[in-house]
Amino acid sequence: MRAMTATRVYRARRVVTMDATQPEATHVAVRDGRILGAGGPELLGFYHGAVEDGRFADKVMLPGFVEGHSHAAEGMVWHHPYLGYFDRMAPDGGIAPGVTTLADALARLRALEAELPEGEPLLVWGFDPIYHEGPRLHRRDLDAISATRPIVVSHASGHIINVSSVVLERTGFSADSNLDGLLRDENGLTGELMGPPAMQRATRVAGGGGLMQRIDREGLRAFSRQAARVGITTATDLQRKLDAETVDMMRRVTAEADFPMRLVAALGAREYGVADGVARTNELLGTGSDKLHFGIVKLTLDGSIQGFTGRLRWPGYHNGAPNGMWYIAPSELEGIVEAYLRTGAQIHIHTNGDEASETAIDALENVLARCPRPEHRTTLQHCQMADAAQFRRMAGLGMAANLFANHIYYWGEQHAALTAGPVRAPRMNAAATARREGVPVAIHSDAPVTPLGPLFSMWCVVNRLTSRGRVFGAGERLTAMEALHAVTLGPAWTLKLDHAIGSIAPGKFADLVVLEEDPFLVPAERLREIGVHATVLGGEVCHW
Amino acid sequence: MIRLLVIGGFLGAGKTTLVNRLLARADRRIAVLVNDFGSVAVDAALITAADATSMTLANGCVCCSIGDDFGAALESVAERRPELVVVEASGIADPWRIAQLALIEPGFELGPLVVLADAEALPRLLADGAIADILRGQLGFADIVVLTKTDIAGATLTESRALVHAIRPQAQVIETRDGDVALEALDFAVPHARARFLAEASHPFRTWTWRDRRPFDRGALRALLASLPAAVLRIKGFCGLDDDAGDWLLQYAAERWAFTRAEAVAERALVVIGTEAMDKAALEADFAAALRR
For the whole model, what pTM was predicted? Predict the structure, then answer.
């Protein structure tokens, strides 16, 4: 007789399974890392030797959250101090407090500078002056903190940095220069730099390697801790050069017994020529493990809306800014999509503006006409400005949308004032319309662009409140159950992992999140305050 | 200083063909920087060394991938001491943004911005709302526009010429069937002093030099640079500013300029390159008026 492995039955106050046959339960039975079933106390009698585990008896249990669009860079940015406006949880679980005024920011910088060893540059990230009143950060402010140490302050948008005079001197940008991306006032350069050429040069001469270094073990571990703390049991690293060194590291680190999540690593097509990218995709397909999934290719079609680099349809940017950038020429997209589709990989296309979404839909429609792929599940990432007609086409073509829910809160006001304008901004990230038109919907954080936090993303789509407390697009709000779907089965479907994760159903991985409160009982505006008590991965309680 | 030539233009305009021919026929050590390394079609027999991001050719030329940080790629290629760096911008990139880097990256001087356009496809591409702004942006700062595929353009050639002229009237236009353009043609070809009586029309650029050791007034020079006529395409040279004892390298192109600190300058002089419409007498007066009093 085969030796039976142990059966554990977790008991909870309430279990919401996202499984239609057994939508609610109090007990979940697990064995060999998988779910045997969910139900009541009778489960204990179904399996010989089953042991009840009551440690979560007064908690609420859900399927582990799935973050369908994040970046492992979230784990790397914490090598440097945070200077953002909002409080943010660090990988060690501590709260990095936000700075709400320029004076606060400077005081923080002064304290950081005092602790830093001689000779090291001071690099900080997340600065968000959109929320600060009064004058903009100037190099004089940074020079007052240190006249000799290079200081680089990266903005939350990722498109702007502020540097001190010593950095400017090293770049060779003299005060009399007039180049794109160097902000100036009547007294010369302010030290605020925009756009990759100037930013890259300044970061290079400042020393310290910059913020975005190659992902390493510590960065990946930090990312996984961040994810686990907010209840995520599967997270994506949705744009990565998957060279041998990186893939070996990912295999090693995800195999560590206490690595607390499953990682989906998407090949970033822009890191490769098409032929090389296709070859690398073929090499990686099917070489994953239970905790590491390959088989997704990420294409980036346009830029960002708040950076005015997204591609918008008529009437364009509300403030009259010129239309944004293509990272892939529209005429090339079809060929690239077809090449990757033929590998059997699944394609995720970054489209922020609605012109980009339209272009992606057009390309896929043409490709599918000559190269049909059942179950291709091509997913538009962000897809922030899609309207009902675009969602209908997406549904017809078998596409999914992973919407940037957190944008409503973080940039909703800016979208209304500057980018999409007051009429289109409330229609952004139209989750209810997408669902109504039959498009599978996920929602995401795009960490480190905004913090990881599926409960926060749920709060965003359920309330649609901006940072100033205005409701944007009441008709696009989701119910709590629909929102939960968008952070569990929804993203699982977009990753072709819905057979294994995303609900508490027999045979699936026993990935669970344990909450302090019931998201279906707390008032909607309190969703984001619910505490994550624990996560369970493959039946084992994670320690982070 | 290493001369830097940026070649831009939309997909299909013939950039790669042109770059491959420049490499194959090079009589100088050219370093080519490209986005898509795989598209460089060099005869394998000519390659003497290659790795993932660069290859060295028997004629001394080198071809490198741009990678994530264009400035870092420039810095690294400078260590190979090439005589000319040619950058092939991606088909959707703004080559003018790339060219500006040559103004700030030490050791480089910016040659003309060369933008290729497919004479047969240009009217159609400029009518496509999704990409028209990208093409206009590329052509909008060009010093030299190379119209390619003129043999198959037929009647659209005239239309393409007119479109280019409307977008960038001061650009010199070169027409070619197959991208077979000599490297010498992709430079600010100005009439030689002694050849003044030869066909000047084939040298559309003019040059004029400001020679005066006296320093400029900072504010006045900045104001002058900000209001230069469109006929002025480039300024390069050394000058003094205010009571600052040192010398400054000034590089100007298309309403943008950079001053960088210079050392061991033999002569203060500014070389100005422009189109035939450049009014040298007016410039002489403007520069003199900007001197420090």
Answer: 0.90
